[in-house]
Structure formats: structure tokens, C-alpha cells
Amino acid sequence: MHIGFIGLGNMGAPMALNLLKAGHQLSVFDLSASSVAALVEAGARSAASVAELARRTPEVIISMLPAAQHVKGVYLGDAGLLAHVAPGVLLIDSSTIDPMSAREVSALALTQGNRMLDAPVSGGTGGAAAGTLTFMVGGAAADFDAALPVLQAMGRNIVHCGPSGNGQVAKVANNMLLAISMIGTAEAMNLGVSLGMDAKVLAGVLNSSSGRCWSSDTYNPYPGVMEGVPAARGYSGGFGSNLMLKDLGLATTAAQQAGQPVPMGALAQQLYQTFSRQGNGHLDFSAIIKLCNGEIE
Ligand code: NAD
Predict the structure, then answer these.
(1) CB atoms within 10 A of CB 177
(2) Model pTM?
(3) Nearest ligand 1 atom to alpha carbon 11
């Protein structure tokens, strides 16, 4: 299948490589010439602009961009995708953006005869490279079925979450819960250790008790408890605190639009805002344990 791919960053590049590995023909565009060159070397064809990529009439076009402003910039306006793409092409935006923006762009695509899915991912850069991402997909069921073989080349769990925007809804709800559970785990670990418990023993108890969660048993933030996690390497790599802050901003903004109180999510957003402001945004999000501990660098 001929697929167009726009946005070849930390996530987009390995996802595009997996499409090539699966035997798809790929046309790519990114503002960064070096990102494009790496994909061309792997077998993709570069396009000089979004419009040129659209005019090559790939059957599917996937975008993986930083934020809603970039998605709107790529899809809308005279030079945008929607102005140049042929009717019937299936558009898939995998960027993490707010559900309202996803619904707005998708509605415009539908009015001109295109099909569009929002399909944000979880699994990070490791999952993107391994082709094991989870895709949370919003849009029509028939379009989900059409996208499935393409998404399966990049991911393992592909879930239809309902109509347009619902992929983004699932994504922001999950990441808000992840932030809250990480802060809770950090607090519990700090409390236990400061009261005299060994961190590993405490983690063992939590992980076989009702406090168990992914943040405690798979990604424990306390140094020395687990190997192979960011806490074991000075909180480098992993999922950056600034990216978590972005997702918490999306969650709290969406909550405001829906009139839905999310006090724990709002507090988590403020804690990550503080942590970022202190210059720690590049550290993995589990490093928030330093803030919970009053240990500020
Ligand atoms: P990134 O900043 O590494 O890559 C974004 C790419 O988009 C860059 O190569 C940039 O040049 C390109 N770009 C920006 N504006 C463009 C435009 N107008 N036209 C063409 N290309 C343009 O970001 P990333 O880490 O790949 O993340 C992409 C999305 O995936 C974000 O929405 C992010 O929240 C989400 N996400 C990231 C992770 C992660 O671990 N990095 C995990 C899950 C979801």
C-alpha cells in the first residue's frame, strides 16, 4: 500500500520505518531535512511539502506531530493537507492533542469527502521502535477496520474507542491516571522509607497488596528498587516530565470544557508544572519523586 507519513520525530521515524519493514511504499515529509534523509536512506520517497505529498494520492496518510497547533497547521489552510488531498483518502492523526481539536479537524475532513481517525499512541519510543504501540482510535467503525492492517504494522494493541475524538479522550484519561498513580507511589515510597522501611521490602509489600499499580510494580520511582527503569539511571530516558506536563494540560483543559472536576489531575498538573519550572522537564516523569521528597536540584 502507498502510505504518506508526516512528522518523523522521536515517535514518527521508528513508526515509519516499521511501515517500510512491513513492505509498504512510503512518501514522507518533515520540516527537518535530516529526519527526512534518514527515512529516504531506508527506502522512503521524500515530498517537498504537505501539498506535494497529498497530491501523490497515497491511500492512507498518517501524521505524528508535536501538538494541536502543528496538526492544524498541517491539515488546514491553503497549503494544508485538506486543501490538496483527494477525496476518499484515509487520514490518521497519531499526535497527542486535545479531543476538541481532533473533532474539529476530523469534521472538516469529513465534509470534503475524506475519512479521518484520531489514533494517539502509548508505549513510548521503545514501543514505536519495537512495533508494539497501543493505538487508541476514534472515528467510524468502517474506517477503523480499514486502518487496522496499517496500524498493526506499528502496534500490538489497537482499540476502537468510539467516534471521532475518543482516541484522544482515552489517551488523556490514561495519562492523567498514570501521573496521579506515579505521584501516589512516590509519596508512599518516601513515607515508608522515612519511617524506617527498606525501599525494596516496601515495594514488595505494595506490589502484592491493594496499593499495587503499574507505577509501583513496573516503573518504580524509588532508586534501587528495580533495574532497567529510569530511577536506576538517574531518571534519564523514558517518558519526559515535560511530555507528561503537556498531557496533563490536555486533560485539565478537556475537563474544563466538559465541566468535569478533576481535582487530582489538576494537582498533578501543578506538581509537574513546578517540577518543570525548576529545570527538571527533561527528566523521566518518575523523577517527580524528588519533588515529593522535597529534594530539589
Ligand atoms: P518530536 O518533537 O520528536 O517529533 C515531531 C516531528 O514533527 C519533528 O520531526 C518535527 O520536525 C515535525 N514537525 C513539526 N511541525 C511540522 C510540520 N508543520 N510539518 C511537518 N513536520 C513537522 O515529537 P515525538 O516525541 O515524536 O511526539 C509526537 C507526538 O507523539 C506528540 O504529540 C507526543 O505527545 C506524542 N507521544 C510521544 C511519546 C514519546 O515518548 N515521545 C509517547 C506517546 C505519544
Answers:
(1) 17
(2) 0.93
(3) 26
CB 100 within 8 A of CB 165: yes
For ligand 1, the distance from its centroid to the CA atom of residue 3, given in whole angstroms, is 18
**Residue whose cell numbers read 496521579:** 180
Residue pair 163/115 in contact (Cβ under 8 Å)? The answer is: no
Domains within the chain, CATH numbers bracketed: 2-163 (3.40.50.720), 169-292 (1.10.1040.10)
pLDDT digits (tens, 9 = 90+) for 159-194: 999 999 999 999 999 999 999 999 999 999 999 999
Distance CA 23, CA 5 (A): 15
CA torsion 169-172-176-179 (nearest 10°) is 150
Measured in whole angstroms, the distance separating CA 230 from the mean position of its chain's CA atoms is 18
Check if 54 has its Cβ closer than 6 Å to any atom of ligand 1: no
Query: Which residue numbers are catalytic?
Result: 171
Tell me the backbone φ, ψ of residue 69, rounded to 5 degrees: -60, -35
Rounded to the nearest angstrom, the distance between the alpha carbon of 68 and the centre of ligand 1 is 11
Grid cell 494520492 is found at 57
Question: Could you report the per-residue pLDDT of 74-83, keeping only the tens digit for each?
Answer: 999 999 999 9
